[in-house]
Amino acid sequence: MAPDPVAAGTSAQGSIPRYFTWEEVAQRSGREKERWLVIDRKVYNISEFIRRHPGGSRVISHYAGQDATDPFVAFHINKGLVSKYMNSLLIGELAPEQPSFEPTKNKELTNEFRELRATVERMGLMKSNHLFFLLYLLHILLLDVAAWLILWVFGTSFVTFLLSAVLLSTVQAQAGWLQHDFGHLSVFGTSTWNHLLHHFVIGHLKGAPASWWNHMHFQHHAKPNCFRKDPDINMHPFFFALGKVLSVELGKQKKKYMPYNHQHKYFFLIGPPALLPLYFQWYIFYFVIQRKKWVDLAWMVTFYIRIFLSYVPLLGLKGFLGLFFIVRFLESNWFVWVTQMNHIPMHIDHDRNMDWVSTQLQATCNVHKSAFNDWFSGHLNFQIEHHLFPTMPRHNYHKVAPLVQSLCAKHGIEYQSKPLLSAFADIVYSLKESGQLWLDAYLHQ
């Protein structure tokens, strides 16, 4: 059978392949509305496709004008199926004399990481232990029931009220880590089951939309700590001056939205305690209504109906609202300290189009393994391994960690791992340092 001319990357005449250079690809980064990217030396025009991309328009756009081979492999669990839908986007391939990726990327490191990826797959580390996740879900459900039973059996004294709030906060935090697993497609071998359980956990157990999480989180993974590409650092510059590079840049521009030299102090006021109850709580509803995500809204409504009917008869409306606010307050502190300990102290900059390994390692660090740290952080203490292999089931992170450490050691890349409390403290220290760098640049440069 003759090869399909489009799939083969040929011209309209169907006989002469269309060849492109990296310079031509880089010019299609979206600045002039046209967007191309490269996967396995094939050039794709994603200008129109971005609006239909299941993972969202922004995450794929962040690689416009660049090689996207490694993130493509990292994010998709059924690459064969996805590749079939890509044929209509194929417009050609890199010219034979062109390297497989841009000169800004480490060729040897990239090739060795791809070999490591193949080794990891052969070892079966991308396969999930369903019993692990079933037991994890059951422990969340048991804690949820216990929080209600305490009030029902022992009454609504201050002690039982507080204990119930702590248990519910634990449920919310742990459900947050579990929905993260389903959202990354790391539990089941098919997207359908992962998506269904993702809706149940984040929607029914937490009252948040899966589409909002996907929209935000996949961008973070695609370009971690890259300004204007990672939404997790969108608090720069309006609330915080982040990273050494961006802080100095902000100071030189004489911009001062906040007294950044004091940000390590006001972080304790507008960071951990406020993010969920004062921002996420209302923004998620705005998100689903503005984008007409009615399925997500329906799942969210089931959460609020369930928790309302469970606790209002025991506590009354005011008591229920007080309990709900305390739960969100405690959960917010838990969530912010865990999610920021791996990234805020690390390198934050504009996108320099580095290779996949360098991009992830300069933006992430680990926290030492222990039974408590693994549980408390939902195994996000293995942030490096999670970022390199985002669809890997979390119970396998510790198995691949030695292989990643060896790769880093060979190429002189720093592999940071630290105690939990040190990781928390480094958030504050890094904010203090970047605030001082901003002030010095603001006053003297």
Structure description:
Among the domains are: 19-103, Flavocytochrome B2, Chain A, domain 1, CATH 3.10.120; 130-219 and 266-335, no CATH class. 58% of the residues lie in helices and 4% in strands. It has helices at residues 22-26, 57-61, 69-75, 79-86, 107-122, 130-154, 158-183, 191-205, 210-222, 244-252, 263-270, 275-290, 294-340, 356-361, 371-377, 383-388, 397-410, 420-444; strands spanning 19-20, 36-39, 42-45, 90-94, 366-367, 417-418. Strands 1-4-3-2 form a 4-stranded mixed β-sheet. A hairpin with a 2-residue loop joins strand 2 and strand 3. Helix 7 (158-183) packs antiparallel against helix 8 and helix 11 packs across helix 18 (420-444). The longest helix has 47 residues, at 294-340. It is globular.
Mean pLDDT: 94
Summing up helix and strand content along with how strands pair, one would put the structural category as mainly alpha
Number of strands: 6
Strand order of the largest sheet: 1-4-3-2
User: What share of residues is helical?
Assistant: 55-70%
Low-confidence stretches: 1-13
Order of helices and strands: EHEEHHHEHHHHHHHHHHEHHHEH
Percentage beta strand: under 5%
Q: What's the end-to-end separation, in Å? A: 67 Å
Outline, from the CA principal axes?
Answer: globular
What is the topology?
Elements: E1 19-20, H1 22-26, E2 36-39, E3 42-45, H2 57-61, H3 69-75, H4 79-86, E4 90-94, H5 107-122, H6 130-154, H7 158-183, H8 191-205, H9 210-222, H10 244-252, H11 263-270, H12 275-290, H13 294-340, H14 356-361, E5 366-367, H15 371-377, H16 383-388, H17 397-410, E6 417-418, H18 420-444
Parallel strand pairs: 1-4, 5-6
Antiparallel strand pairs: 2-3, 3-4
Membrane topology: Multi-pass membrane protein
GO biological process, one term: fatty acid derivative biosynthetic process
Pathway: Lipid metabolism; polyunsaturated fatty acid biosynthesis
